[in-house]
Amino acid sequence: MMMEINYLDWNNAIEILNKAHETGLFALIIGPKGTGKTTLVRKFASKTKKELYSVNFSLRTRESHLIGSKTLDKGDVSFVEGILVKSMRDGSLLYLDELNAAEPDVLLRLDEALDDRRQLILKEAEGQIINASNSWFVIATINPLSHVGTKELPPQLLSRFPVRVRLDYPPEDVELEIIKQHATIDNSKTNDIKDAIKLARSLREAAAVEELYYSPSLRETIAFAKLLNKDLAPKEVAEIVFANAYDQWGEVEYRKVMDMITSIFGN
Amino acid sequence: MILRNDVLLDIATFLARRWSRNPKAVIVLTQDKIPMGKPDKNQIVLPFLNYYPGTDFQKYRQWRVALWYESMRLLYSTKVLSYDHAFGFLLNTVETKRIELLGLRQWNGMRNELIFNEGMSWLSRPLLNSIHGRHKISEAFSQYFLTGYLKGELYGGEFERVKKASEFANNIVIESIDNSYKTEWIEQHISQLIKILELDPLSSIPIIAPRTRIGMSLSQSDVLKQLEKLVTMKHNYKDDRKALKEIVEGNEILSEFESLVEESRKTENKGYESLENFGLSIPQKMDVDETSIYDTDLIQKVKASFRNWKTGWIERHGDMGEEFDPESYAESLPKTFLIDYKLSIKTKVVILLDHSSSIEDVELEYKRATIALCEALHYLGIKFAVFAFSTDERRVKCWVIKPANIKWSVISARRLVQIKASGGTPLAEIYGLLQPMIKSFKPDIMVTLTDGEPSDFDSVRQMVLFYRKMGIHMVSIGVGRNLSDSVSIGHNLIYLNYEKTMAVSRLQDIPKKVINLLRA
After folding, report:
1. Cβ contacts (< 8 Å) between B19 and chain A: which residues?
2. Beta strand B395-402 pairing with B383-392
3. Any chain B CB within 8 A of the CB of A122?
4. 3-state SS of B18-76?
5. φ, ψ of residue A43 in degrees (nearest 5)
6. I want to staple B264 with a disulfide (CB 3.0 to 4.6 A). Which of B4, B13, B108, B363 is the partner?
7. What is the CA radius of gyration of chain B?
């Protein structure tokens, strides 16, 4: 039985993906880490009852992971199909996460498959031609192109995804609603959670201009709400969930975040 | 001073930008100036810590609160007038209350610090009896409106006027908050306030630093006793000794303060003073604005073009790995698997910037290119040091912009912006001055940006050779006004024994040219 995917569609993203799917236009979701891009894609896959194949390019994906590779099996060389080839054959939903972190050789092969012909020539397997099934659909994600230091996606690859959906950090009231979906919130603790959302927003703004090394995602604000339910003091929870992560970059980084926490939560 | 100004600047910049939600906010530290936010310039002027009375920690707490107030001013005010005439004084005072109320909605955790600050500043407020002239009423209004109390006595109908003015000011603050009115709306009502107080709008208000008021008459234990009394009286903490203790002792902020003290101590020990002992000079002014040499577009472009160096991988063959390589297997090569290695740049770089008079025409562009280069080197995690040379007061100076073991920050940019291009190009002498530092840092590459006309040609050749024998790759980049100028400079530089010589006429190309050297 498939697990129910909990996703609050605050900016109508699912409707846009539906339209893209109906017209066979691949979609690109642009947003920072931790804004729910993967959850959105999983929700979409669940609604359309499509099998989901995922690739995360920030984890050093090789060309062979996508296409396939030769392997040695009892003295014989054989070819094992990669995730891209499988998904094209099956007509499933292919999810390309953090596409702009992919190496150039990988992007080149993807470009080949994503153009209008939806075709791949396997030079690794005697030039076999793979034609994508009609129901094959691709969704990719990238960090915002305006983000400081982001590698740009080559224009030809960008053009393969004519439908673009922005998924930024939600407004504070929406983030509160999202948190309520994942954690039970006592009314007496709502203000503390709003303060945590404010803190997260400040830290995200600092990270966006590289004044801090890390940007907290919705996962942190959800974790804050869950820990608060265990009767820990809000400031203590903020330190555990938000500040401690910065210690790896040194005392000064950690103390800057603690300073923010003190000015929001006080005592 | 227990806290170095550059450490203060770093934390102040971070906090101001977060509190004011303005990523362009710039802090200027200056001696004995009243704290002031300038929303039109995205600037906050703050005094040094010794502007405030008390122990070092108490000074820091007051300074931090002043930073918070001025950050709130950047966020919520659209206009700040000078404090030294009545109209400006009154507008700024009313605004202070408005921004405080708005600010506490967002930063409720500042409450204790604001109470502490109110107590300390109360101790240093003048006694009304000791003030003569019209500005007595302005001071009385400020005291009564901001704190609810008067320090000293008022005579005749003075108190009635102050009370009426405070009620009026409180009402306009509440109305402005309820209706989201801004500074201009408040400003329209200041004339009415002046009428109530019977002031001349242009009458001058003398501003005296707090520490001079509190004087030496109170010992530390007296200060703390007074503080407790004030806080209890005003905020009713009589039955809550714990809360009172927290406000007076400030343990919430103590960890942050101690961390800054430690950072200052580490920075001190990292050898700024030892560099001066070797004849190098350190630009000292911190009240300069470095934003003129920050070209954000150029910085982003350079970082973007080298981002794959930060995240890139290369493939190597090995005995085991992620992928089987059939070609190697077919050729019976020993290593038939492919392993991925993450790219990293371990090169150490020294950059020397010619600031002779020949770069005067293009000084700003030259500095912008340098900043973009340094930001990119910092982004890539490369260890580097930056020096510059010029003639200052008829003496050749080798300036330290960024020592090797100090993190790149806005402080280094402020050091660079204050160096004026002047004088000749005594390159050999500069190389000589840098010798102890070079021997200690042991860079892999030393890049000299110059106009290619040193005043001591033969000596430069010898020094370049000397460093090359130490194993340092000596590279020069000729900076010219146009293509033929830069090519001719490049040709000159070839004769100076540099291992590699390049020329640029477009200064924006400097960052990429230097960084590309590091992977060669």
Report:
1. 263
2. antiparallel
3. no
4. HHHCCCCCEEEEECCCCCEEEHHHCEEEEECHHHCCCCHHHHHHHHHHHHHHHHHHHHH
5. -65, -45
6. B4
7. 30
Q: Is B297 on the interface with A (CB under 8 A)?
A: no
Contacts of A264 in chain B (CB under 8 A): 106-109
**Overall average pLDDT of the A30-37 stretch:** 86
Mean pLDDT, chain B cut into blocks of 10 residues (520 residues total): 82 94 89 89 92 91 96 95 89 96 94 90 84 85 91 88 96 96 95 91 70 59 78 70 84 89 74 68 79 85 76 76 77 83 79 90 89 90 92 86 85 90 89 90 92 83 93 90 83 86 87 81
Q: In terms of CA atoms, which chain A residue is nearest residue B308? A: A151
Compute the CA torsion angle B276, B279, B282, B283 (nearest 10 deg). Answer: 140
DSSP string of B73-124?
Answer: HHHH-S----TTBHHHHHHHHHHHHHHHHHHHHH-GGGHHHHHHHHHHHHHH
Radius of gyration of chain A (CA): 21
Q: B323 and A62: CB-CB below 8 Å?
A: yes
Kindly state whether B306 is in contact with chain A, defined as any CB-CB distance less than 8 angstroms: no
Residue B337's closest CA among B351, B352, B322, B353? B322
* Token pair of A165 as six digits: 């959906």
The pLDDT value given to residue B361: 84
Smallest Cβ distance to A252: which of B21, B243, B263?
Answer: B263
User: What is the model's pTM?
Assistant: 0.80
Q: Which of A70, A103, A206 sits opposite B18 (nearest CB)?
A: A206
Query: Is B332 at the interface with chain A, CB within 8 A?
Result: no
CB contact under 8 A, B323 and A258: no
ipTM of this predicted structure: 0.77
CATH code at B348-517? 3.40.50.410
Q: Does A261 touch chain B (CB under 8 A)?
A: yes
Tell me which chain A residues have a C-beta less than 8 angstroms from the C-beta of B260. 255
Contacts of B252 in chain A (CB under 8 A): 262, 266-267
> Is A148's Cβ below 8 Å from some Cβ in B?
yes
Which pLDDT value is given to residue B192?
Answer: 94
Which of B106, B263, B322 is nearest residue A62 as measured by Cβ atoms? B322
Residue carrying structure tokens 């300390």: B120
Element holding B383 (H helix, E strand): strand B383-392
Give the closest-approach CA distance of B340 to chain A in angstroms: 8
Instruction: Say if B107 is an interface residue toward chain A (CB within 8 Å).
Output: yes
Which sequence spans correspond to the domains of chain B? Answer: 5-256, 314-343, 348-517
Q: Are A17 and A46 in contact (CB under 8 A)?
A: no
**Residue A121, φ and ψ in degrees, nearest 5:** -105, 120
Task: Say if the Cβ atoms of B340 and A62 lie within 8 Å.
Answer: yes
Return the DSSP state at B501: E
CA nearest to A175, candidates A208, A224, A139? A224
Predicted pLDDT of residue B161: 93
Instruction: Tokens for A167, please give them.
Output: 């998924």
Spatial distance between the Cα atoms of B134 and B213, rounded to a whole number of angstroms: 20
A198 CB neighbours in chain B (<8 A) are 106
